[in-house]
Every structure is written in structure tokens, then in C-alpha cells.
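Colleagues,

For the teaching module next term, I've prepared a clean inverse folding example: a structure given as C-alpha cells, and then the sequence designed for it. I'd like students to try predicting residues themselves before seeing the answer, so please don't circulate the second half yet.
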């Protein structure tokens, strides 16, 4: 069935904050978590870029992938310890079983990739080209063998090659954070990789409470804590022999659309997914 194109939406904002000793302390924790992420990236990423340029052919991508997972997992633990995040991912151990799988998820917030890359082994992320050049993320992403989403045929060939080597691809088919509706219109790059490699697609649903870290919300805006995220496994979907990439992308988009709802504040599952 044809996809419905998502419309852009105005900037989101949390309800106005009534400042008190409690809310000031809450905001300090929120900003501490935020800046610890950027400061770590600003220190680590240039070192990784230097390693990738000078000795990338000697350093396997698995090293960069493990480094990113270690950094992300420790940042999440720190942020949870100070009460910024509350993360519910009950089937997390299933990620360790994945080999040569395309993992697709909806994209409600800035931390979606962090939630998954912190725990998924042999993970290669298909990233926005701009992020690959970011001083906070670019060096580590390059060292880990991540792929920019503007590569055209190189993107498809690179994705197929990674899957054949047993690595897992993490792709957000929306291309950017959800703007309006349950999901944005899906791009078909992931579907091209899936149809050419015949790799299975493991779906993940990410639920978000509140609008902080959503598209259009300022990073410095105060938010109620903790920020709650839930990650659930969906079905594993296989490309059909006669299916075009466009048809596969539309099928997957519809699968996400009928299982998620966007209330304007939260993005959540309408019913528990069937695995």
C-alpha cells in the first residue's frame, strides 16, 4: 500500500518550567549528561580520526565498533545513575545473537542510535553524511567502518559487503528524527541493500516519553526527568523474491505505522509487537 508522506511540524517544547531548587538541580543533571557526551566525543573523535588516517588499514573496524559501544554504554550508565535516563530494553540479550542482519528502527530522538549501538555487537551504522564529518562523532565512526548515507552505489555495495562479512547494519529508514505522524516516509536505501543481499531485517520499536531530544526541541531546553525510553523487538522481515526495493520500503513503513502512534508528546506502541 502506498506510503503517506509525513508533514513537517512546528518546533516542539516542553511545558514551561516553574523554577525551584528541585528543578534547578534537575536541569544541572540534564546539562551535565549532555555536555559529558559532547566533551567525550570532542576528546576521543580526533584521536580516532588520526588512527583511521595513519593506520586504518592495520586497525580492524571491530576495534572502533567496540570502542563506540564501550563509550556509549558508559555514558548511558552515568546518565542513568544521575537520574537523567530511564531505559527499558527487556530483550537486550537478543542483539548478541545477530549476525549479518539489517536492524531497522523508528527514530523518535537524538539518542536512538546510542541506545542500540551501546549493546549491539559487530554493528555498522548507516549515518547521515553530516554526522560523519562531525568533530564529536566523525573520527570514531570512520574508525568503526560506518557508512555515510550519501554514497549512492558505494553505500549499497558497502552495506552488502558488511552483511556478507557477518556484520550487522543499523539503519533508521526515516532518515531523520520523526516529525509528524508515527514515522516519516521511509527512504529506500535499506531496501536496496536488503533485496541485493537477501539479508533479514530485524525491526525494533523505540518509544519516547516527552519531547526533549525530539525533532525541533532545543537541546538546552529544560525537561522533566527522567527521560524515558523503551525498546522492543518487532518481527524479523525477509525480502520477497519478486519484491522491488520500493515495495519492501513501503511494506516496512506500513508495518511501523500501524503499530506506533505519535500523540504530539509521546511516541509509543499501540499494541505489544509480535516477535
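(Answer key — instructors only)
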Amino acid at each position: 500500500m502506498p506510503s503517506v508522506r509525513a508533514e513537517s511540524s512546528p518546533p516542539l517544547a516542553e511545558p514551561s518550567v516553574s523554577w525551584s531548587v528541585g528543578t534547578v538541580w534537575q536541569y544541572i543533571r540534564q546539562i551535565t549528561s549532555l555536555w559529558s557526551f559532547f566533551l567525550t566525543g570532542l576528546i576521543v573523535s580526533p584521536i580516532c580520526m588520526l588512527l583511521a588516517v595513519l593506520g586504518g588499514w592495520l586497525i580492524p573496524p571491530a576495534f572502533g565498533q567496540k570502542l563506540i559501544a564501550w563509550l556509549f554504554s558508559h555514558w548511558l550508565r552515568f546518565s542513568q545513575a544521575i537520574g537523567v535516563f530511564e531505559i527499558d530494553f527487556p530483550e537486550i540479550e537478543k542483539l548478541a545473537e545477530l549476525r549479518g542482519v539489517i536492524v531497522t528502527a523508528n527514530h523518535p530522538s537524538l539518542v536512538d542510535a546510542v541506545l542500540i549501538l551501546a549493546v549491539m555487537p559487530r554493528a555498522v551504522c548507516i549515518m547521515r553524511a553530516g554526522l560523519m564529518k562531525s568533530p564529536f562523532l566523525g573520527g570514531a565512526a570512520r574508525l568503526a567502518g560506518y557508512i555515510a548515507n550519501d554514497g549512492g552505489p558505494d553505500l549499497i555495495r558497502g552495506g552488502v559487503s558488511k552483511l556478507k562479512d557477518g556484520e550487522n547494519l543499523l539503519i533508521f529508514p526515516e532518515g531523520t528524527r520523526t516529525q509528524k505522524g508515527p514515522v516519516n516516509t521511509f527512504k529506500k536505501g535499506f531496501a536496496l541493500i536488503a533485496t541485493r543481499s537477501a539479508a533479514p531485517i530485524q525491526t525494533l520499536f523505540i518509544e519516547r516519553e516527552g519531547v526533549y531530544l525530539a525533532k525541533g526541541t532545543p537541546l538546552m531546553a529544560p525537561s522533566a526527568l527522567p527521560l524515558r525510553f523503551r525498546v522492543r523487538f518487532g518481527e524479523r522481515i525477509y525480502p520477497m523474491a519478486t519484491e522491488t526495493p520500493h515495495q519492501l520500503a513501503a511494506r516496512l513503513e506500513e508495518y511501523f505505522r500501524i503499530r506506533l502512534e505519535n500523540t504530539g508528546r509521546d511516541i509509543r506502541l499501540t499494541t505489544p509487537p509480535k516477535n
